[in-house]
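[recover] target loaded
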C-alpha cells in the first residue's frame, strides 16, 4: 500500500494538465477583459457616428 501511495504522490503527469488548465483560465480572463474594453470603445464609436449622421440628415452642423 505504501508503494502505491508513494507512486501516486511521485506521479507528476497530472500536474502538467493542471498547469495547462491554469494557463488557459488566465488567458481566457485576459481575452474576455480585452474584448469587453474594445467592445465598449467600438460601441462608443458607433454611437458617435450614428449621432453625427442623424444631425447631418437634419441639416445641422456635424462635430468633427
Amino acid at each position: 500500500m505504501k508503494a502505491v501511495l508513494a507512486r501516486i504522490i511521485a506521479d507528476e503527469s497530472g500536474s502538467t494538465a493542471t498547469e495547462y488548465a491554469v494557463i488557459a483560465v488566465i488567458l481566457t480572463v485576459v481575452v474576455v477583459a480585452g474584448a469587453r474594453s474594445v467592445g465598449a470603445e467600438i460601441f462608443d464609436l458607433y454611437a458617435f457616428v450614428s449621432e453625427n449622421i442623424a444631425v447631418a440628415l437634419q441639416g445641422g452642423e456635424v462635430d468633427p
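[recover] notes: The longest helix spans residues 13-57.
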